[in-house]
Structures are given as structure tokens and as C-alpha cells.
């Protein structure tokens, strides 16, 4: 039994059409919210690569899929119920570790990130998602509560007014700024540059890499760098490269402009001395398909300010480095927890008092799981990782890289 008294006839804005924002909007509508909008900076749902696949955990991601009434649709998507293969190699292409695809039962079925996004998009009411809405500013009228007191300003000049603002806009969140103490910066750069691309027909274009992926994923480690590939349900490979770089260097090198030629030359220098099969992969990964580069940011602070009209979910509140799929699952669990509390029939709080309480209790606490996953990946790309150590860490974090933020 649920109650819609706190959400019915309230204008609720969700910033970001990632796993957290879309799952939140979907469940809010199912529980009786009548005016929910998701604002997304992408021009449309097909604008960019959504990354590889991720496993959906029983105790987090699967819970909100069930709560949203989407379990059948989820199972009809192109999901893998067996355990995907994993391979770890070194820079000389020596295979150190491989788990074949042999598990028949798996409590964490895998789904492509794009398919997961479509699952929630297709379940939303028409016109719930407002595409091409890049949030650039927020103003809050502290003299009024509940009466459209939050003003949203977008890059195209449009303005909207809402009662409640929920930030699901990822590691580079604009909403987060409203809740940061004055002495805190927007983000903590983890020192890692991530470059991502996608390769079609990998059995023809990079057959050796494709054989190592073997319907799953592969990592190549060395020199404090990481190169990886993961198969999507389409058969395409999502390919990613990560290396430790100073933030100023990245900005001055113009790598974030996503220029294929510029990134190709950069990767040639970074992976100089690696086996030729990896150099060939760089060529394929930077040919024709748009390529993206971004800096990875992590947790920002442990204690936040509160606002009765604003809260955060997912990476906006607790960014996890995007190599395990854990971030998406925790983000969706945030959404489930928030909606469950909002629609609890025993909740006698006002909406604004509840938003403050929820944020303080649920978001304002350090998360040991997040620290574990961030630390594990940073060890993998340390300057002198030993191969056995890398294997153990890989097993610890679940062995399934993901390459898109939530």
C-alpha cells in the first residue's frame, strides 16, 4: 500500500535521463505523481553511445525494475543470464587470466546500457522527457514553499518553475552546487582520463581482440594504463582506454573536444611499446565512429547542506568510477528508496520537511561500498600494478566494466 499525498499535484523536476533519473520518474508516475518532467541535455535518445552492458543486481537494480512493473519487459530485452567471460592480459598481449562463459544460472543478468535506458523511456508517459534541455542555472525563492519556488534556466533560453528539484545529472551535476558547503569544490578529479569508442563487425576488424572478449569483456593492463573491450548485445564492441593524466594537460591538449585524429595521435603516444594488436585496436576505435573523452571525478564531500526543495540521486551525490556497473545499480536503488519513502502511508511529514530529512539521512552519510570500488580501480591503474594484484582486484569488483556514467 502506498500513498500519493506528498507527490500528487506537485511539479517535480528530475535533471538527467540516466538510470537514476529515468527509473525515478517511472516509479513516481506509477505511484501517483501527476506532473513529473525529466530534463536531459542530449538532443534525443539516439544522440550518443550509451556504453557497454552492466549486470543488474538482485538487491538494487532488479528491485526497482520489479517495483516499476517492468520485469517482463526487462526479461524480453537482449539480456545475458549466463556469466560472461572475462580476460586479463598485459601490454605484451600475454593472457594471464580468463574465465569462460559457462555459468548457467546467474542472479545478475546483464543488459546493454542503451536497452536499460529504453526500458524506462518506453514506460514513461508521453512527453515526460524534455530533450535538448541543458540546465545552466537554478534560482530558489526561499520565501515560498511548494508554489513553483524553484526556477530552472536552460541554455536555449527557456525557463521553467517547479516545486521539487531532484538532481540525477551525474558526476558533473549542476544541481549538486545548491547543496555543497561554501568551502567545497564541484568535484574531485581522480586523475584518470577515459576515452571510449565502439567498433562494428569486430570479428572482421579486430579478430584477436574479439576472441579475447568472447561474448564478455577483456582488460589489458600495463604502465599504469588500461585498455578494454566489452561486447554489446548487437555484437559491437565498446572499447575504452584509460590513463592517468594531469587535468591541466588534458584541457590544454584539447582532448575533450572529441576530435578523432587528435585522440588517435594521443593514444599512439600513450600506448607506445604495447603489442601491435592493441595499436591496431586504436586505429579501428578512432576510425569513423565518434569517440568521446572525459575526465573521471569522484566523491566530493561527506557532509552537505540541505534544502527543502532539492535532493540528489546517483552519481550526483556519490560518484563511482564507471568500471564495474555498481554505480548504476546504486543509483537506481537511490531512486527506489526515495520513492518508497515519499509514498509511505505512514509518512506524516510535509514534502519539504521530508526532502531535507531524506537527504540528510540517505545521502549525507559516507558510503563504504563506493570507497571500495573507487580504491580498487585506482589500484588497477597505479603506476606499478603487479599482475596477480590486478587479477584479485578485478575479481573483487565483479569483473564487468561499464563505460557510461549514470
Protein model, in words:
With about 400 residues, the protein is of the alpha/beta class. The chain has 2 domains: about 10-80 and about 110-185 and about 300-375, FAD/NAD(P)-binding domain (3-Layer(bba) Sandwich), CATH 3.50.50.60; about 190-300 and about 385-395, D-Amino Acid Oxidase, Chain A, domain 2 (2-Layer Sandwich), CATH 3.30.9. About 30% of the residues lie in helices and about 20% in strands. It is built from 13 helices and 17 strands. The protein has helices spanning about 20-30, 60-65, 70-75, 115-125, 200-205, 205-215, 245-250, 260-270, 275-285, 325-340, 350-365, 370-380, 385-395, and strands at about 10-15, 35-40, 55, 85-90, 95-100, 110, 130, 135-140, 150-155, 160, 165, 190-200, 215-220, 225-230, 235-245, 290-300, 310. The strands form 4 sheets. A 7-stranded mixed sheet has the order 5-4-13-14-15-12-16, with helices on both faces. Strands 7-2-1-11-17 form a 5-stranded parallel sheet. The protein has a 3-stranded antiparallel sheet with strand order 8-9-10, with no helix packed on it. Strand 13 (about 215-220) and strand 14 (about 225-230) form a beta hairpin. Helix 1 runs parallel beside helix 4 (about 115-125). The protein is globular and about 65 Å long. Mean pLDDT is about 80; it is low at about 370-375, about 380-385 and about 390-405.
Amino acid at each position: 500500500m502506498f500513498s500519493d499525498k506528498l507527490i500528487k499535484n506537485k511539479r517535480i523536476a528530475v535533471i538527467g535521463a540516466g538510470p537514476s533519473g529515468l527509473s525515478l520518474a517511472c516509479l513516481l508516475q506509477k505511484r501517483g505523481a501527476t506532473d513529473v518532467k525529466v530534463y536531459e541535455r542530449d538532443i534525443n535518445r539516439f544522440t550518443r553511445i550509451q556504453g557497454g552492458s552492466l549486470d543488474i543486481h538482485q538487491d538494487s537494480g532488479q528491485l526497482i525494475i520489479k517495483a516499476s512493473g517492468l520485469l517482463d519487459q526487462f526479461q524480453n530485452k537482449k539480456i545475458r543470464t549466463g556469466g560472461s567471460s572475462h580476460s586479463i592480459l598485459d601490454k605484451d598481449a600475454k593472457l594471464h587470466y580468463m574465465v569462460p562463459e559457462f555459468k548457467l544460472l546467474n542472479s545478475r543478468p546483464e543488459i546493454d546500457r542503451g536497452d536499460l535506458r529504453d526500458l524506462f523511456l518506453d514506460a514513461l508517459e508521453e512527453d515526460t522527457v524534455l530533450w535538448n534541455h541543458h540546465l545552466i542555472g537554478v534560482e530558489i525563492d526561499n520565501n515560498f514553499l511548494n508554489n513553483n519556488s524553484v526556477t530552472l534556466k536552460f541554455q536555449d533560453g527557456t525557463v521553467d518553475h517547479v516545486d521539487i528539484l531532484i538532481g540525477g545529472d551525474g558526476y558533473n551535476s549542476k544541481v549538486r552546487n545548491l547543496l555543497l558547503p561554501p568551502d567545497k569544490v564541484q568535484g574531485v578529479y581522480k586523475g584518470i582520463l577515459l576515452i571510449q569508442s565502439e567498433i562494428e563487425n569486430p570479428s572482421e576488424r579486430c579478430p584477436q581482440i574479439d576472441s579475447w572478449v568472447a561474448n564478455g569483456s577483456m582488460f589489458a593492463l600495463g604502465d599504469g594504463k588500461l585498455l578494454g573491450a566489452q561486447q554489446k548485445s548487437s555484437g559491437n564492441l565498446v572499447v575504452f582506454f584509460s590513463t592517468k593524466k594531469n587535468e591541466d594537460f588534458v584541457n590544454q591538449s584539447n582532448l575533450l573536444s572529441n576530435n578523432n585524429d587528435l585522440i588517435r595521435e594521443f593514444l599512439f603516444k600513450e600506448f607506445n611499446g604495447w603489442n601491435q594488436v592493441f595499436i591496431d585496436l586504436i586505429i579501428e576505435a578512432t576510425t569513423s565512429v565518434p569517440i568521446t573523452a572525459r575526465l573521471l571525478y569522484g566523491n566530493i564531500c561527506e557532509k552537505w547542506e540541505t534544502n527543502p526543495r532539492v535532493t540528489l540521486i546517483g552519481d550526483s551525490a556519490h560518484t563511482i568510477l564507471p568500471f564495474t556497473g555498481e554505480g548504476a545499480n546504486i543509483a537506481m536503488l537511490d531512486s527506489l528508496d526515495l520513492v518508497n519513502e515519499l509514498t509511505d502511508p505512514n509518512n506524516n511529514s510535509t514534502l519539504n520537511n521530508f526532502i531535507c530529512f531524506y537527504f540528510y539521512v540517505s545521502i549525507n552519510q559516507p558510503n563504504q561500498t563506493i570507497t571500495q570500488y573507487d580504491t580498487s580501480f585506482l589500484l588497477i591503474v597505479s603506476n606499478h600494478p603487479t599482475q596477480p594484484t590486478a587479477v584479485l582486484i578485478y575479481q573483487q569488483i565483479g569483473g564487468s566494466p561499464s563505460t557510461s556514467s549514470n
